[in-house]
Structures are given as structure tokens and as C-alpha cells.
Amino acid sequence: MKFTAKQIADILEGVVVGNPDAEVYKLAKIEEGTEGALTFLSNPKYQKYIYTTQATVAIVNNAFEPEQPLTTTLIKVEDAYQAFTKLLEYYNQVKLMKSGIEQPSVLSENVTYGSDLYLGSFCYVGKNVTIGTNVKIYPNSFIGDNVTIGDNCILFAGVRIYSETEIGNHCVIHSGAIIGSDGFGFAPLEDGSYKKIPQIGNVILEDHVEIGSCTTIDRATLGSTIIRKGVKLDNQIQIAHNVEIGEHTVIASQTGVAGSTKIGKNCIIGGQVGIVGHITIGNGVRIQAQSGIGKSLKDNETVQGSPAFTYGEWTKSYVHFKNLPTIVSDLNELKKQTK
């Protein structure tokens, strides 16, 4: 897919300096630009590369004035970084602009869907499923019975959506994610074995939720596991049954949240965090990577460690942790002197 400098400038409301008919068909970092590539310059420390890059077109700030001859056509904009981001979003929309139902695929009884549906090959859609407008479901995906999917959602290849799941508008679910699998519920028996507790609830994803690859969200035992509006979950995260995550909270990869825990709004949770079940984490909480959370946290706390405690105390304590061998040696020396 090729674009001219003028077409790009029109999208970005910029001005072309150079050849408006210059064509690009790929993106590149400025130091690695080759013929046919589009790049950008926003950080002054990369300015030297504008004179050596082989990129055909470069987006620059309005204030940029070259000090040496250029071979690259420029597109001048108010903010090159934001303009390039806007262009990436536009490119992604064009790339994902598919429609139609590929074969083989299965649409079961009483499935309804809006306009501009894309259903990739080898997809299965169960009974009584409702799919909104402009939804893209990529190949090898499974949609269980009685699932609802809102408008403008993207489900990438290999997504599994179990029955009764409710997905809002503008949601993105990446490859390998599993939404609505059984919660981990087993009752111990007298003989030492375990009896599975039926998991008959569901999962609700509200609007503008994004779920990373290979992340799993378990259905509730009763009621719903709820991921509120604007939540962003990274890859390889485990969300257990009956968990609720508040609006606009973000969680990094390899974090696990045990059953029935409630997480507030606008929290930031680092990677490899472990959170026990049946606790409440307040709004605006910050949890540093690799922390272990074993108790409820109040609004706006920042914690680190395992078990976690306040970030300020942790940083002070860490100074002593790493000096522990010296401290022990000094203590032993003092003991000798007092004998």
C-alpha cells in the first residue's frame, strides 16, 4: 500500500517541503530509513540522522530548519511525534479494514450481527450470539453460546470467548486470550480428593477494554467477573473468578489476581505481581513489579516488596538489605570488642 507525501500531509494537516509526489510504502526509524520509507524527527538528539537517512519522506516539527542539504522530502507539522502517532493509528485502521465472512466458518442458530462484520476462516460462532457493527473476528476464533459483542471490537486470531460473556464497545482482545473459562473452584472431600464447584457466572468487559495475548479471565462462580471501562491488561495475566477491576486501571504482564478481589480505579500494577483473594485495593494505587499483596490497600498507596509495604519504607530498607553482610560483620566485631 503506497501513499504520496501530499496524501500524508493532508491526513496530518501538514505542509510538504520537497516532492509532493514522493511515494512511501513502509515505516522506519530515522537512523535506519531506506528508499520508500516514511520516518519522523522529534527528538533533537536524532537530528544528525536527517542528513544521512535514506528515507523518502520525513515528518518534522514546523520549527525545524535544515543546516545541510537534504535528499528527503519533509512534511512539516506542529508536533512530529503526535503526528506520527496519528499516522500509525490511521495506518492500523486501514490495515484492519476487512469485511465479509470467510469460509470455512460456522454461524449457529439465531446469530445476529451488524454491518461490516469480518469473520475469518475457521471461526465458530455459537447459538444466540449478538455481534455489533464493524466487528473484526480473525481466523481460528471461538465464540460460545449467548455471547454479546458490542460495536467496533477486534478479536485477533485464536481468541476464545466462552458462553454468556458480555463484551462492550471498542474492545480489543489479542491472540490466545481466553475469556470466561471456569474459575478455580474445588471443595475438599473427606478422602482427600476434590469435587469441582460448578462455575455458572460470566465475564463482563465494559467499553474500551484491551486484553493482551494469552491472558485469561475466569467466569464467576455466581454473578460476574467484571473488567470496567478503559482497563488495559497486558499479556499473560491471570484474572480469577469474581474479580472486579475498576475503570482505567492498567496491569502489566505475568500478574495474577486471586478470586473475589476488588481493584479500584486508575491503579497501576507492575509485572509479576501476585494479589491474594478476597481483598480490596483502593483507587489510584501503585504496585511495583514483583510485589506480593497479601492485604487490602487504601486509596493512593504505593507499595513494593513481598510481602509488600509502602514504597518509601521499602527504599529505605533496601539500603540496609544490600549492606546486610557489612552490618553483620560490624556487629560481630563489636561483640568481640565487648567480650
UniProtKB/TrEMBL annotation:
Family label:
Belongs to the transferase hexapeptide repeat family. LpxD subfamily.
What CDD domains does UniProt report for this protein, alphabetically? LbH_LpxD
Q: Which gene encodes it?
A: lpxD
Annotated catalytic residues: 241 (proton acceptor)
Spell out the protein name for this chain.
UDP-3-O-acylglucosamine N-acyltransferase
**TM annotation in the entry:** none
Which species does the entry assign this protein to? Flavobacterium aciduliphilum
What task does this protein carry out? Catalyzes the N-acylation of UDP-3-O-acylglucosamine using 3-hydroxyacyl-ACP as the acyl donor. Is involved in the biosynthesis of lipid A, a phosphorylated glycolipid that anchors the lipopolysaccharide to the outer membrane of the cell.
Q: Which Pfam families match?
A: Hexapep (PF00132), LpxD (PF04613)
